[in-house]
Amino acid sequence: MAQPGGDPRVHPATGAVEIRRSARRRRTVSAYRNGDRVVVLLPARLAPADEQRWVETMVTRLQQREARVRPGDTELAQRAGELSGRWLPPDSAQPVAVSWTSRQNARWGSCTPADRTIRISDRLRGVPTWVLDYVLIHELVHLSEPAHDERFWSLVRRYPRAERARGFLEGLGFAAEEPAPAGQLDFGQAVARQRSQGRQAPVG
Ligand SMILES: [Zn+2]
């Protein structure tokens, strides 16, 4: 079970856990989230018998920490309202509900303009706030702009870190194969479409 090296394995609660052993690391054990996996750093000399116990301990601690810092649905909706007020035109469509979902593995966010709901993937827990803000802005703009056209991007780019956040999300190895359910818009697929068409949204 205990193998040194960066072997990812699946943890029942968090998904993939990658264990890295470092020769430079002598006593300290730490863990952080990297995209959709948890990386646990262990000293190279840690006895294999202790590995599983430490992984469990660190994953549990990380989850407790995330539960403290991750906003709930109420805070998420509040945040969306603040972002809209700050970056989007005053007459922008406002969401009726914004919520986290654990059922979106291939998309960071989605929105249903018909009932003005926005869902944000649980996989975004642990990303920097400015990245989460970008996903919220993206979905907020979709409430009134279904297509990823010029008008859409000009609104999204009112948020100054939009391009940087897109780069951050691409770096997480985002897969966009999953089709969106009918009536839903999602931006993962749009990114994939842009790529396949060899077209980039203008940066500015
Ligand atoms: Zn989109």
Q: Secondary-structure blueprint of this entry?
A:
Elements: E1 8-11, E2 15-22, E3 30-34, E4 37-43, H1 48-69, H2 73-87, E5 97-101, E6 109-112, E7 117-121, H3 129-142, H4 150-156, H5 162-171, E8 185-186, H6 187-196
Parallel strand pairs: 2-4, 5-7
Antiparallel strand pairs: 1-2, 3-4, 6-7, 6-8
The chain binds zinc ion.
Q: What is the CATH class of the largest domain?
A: Alpha Beta
Quickly count the domains: 2
CATH superfamily of the largest domain: Metalloproteases ("zincins"), catalytic domain
Q: What Rg is obtained from the alpha carbons, in whole angstroms?
A: 19 Å
Ligand names: zinc ion
Biggest sheet, strands in spatial order? 1-2-4-3
Distance between the termini: 49 Å
Which fold name is given in CATH as the topology of the largest domain?
Answer: Zincin-like
Q: Report helical residue fraction.
A: 25-40%
Order of helices and strands: EEEEHHEEEHHHEH
Multimeric status of the protein: single chain
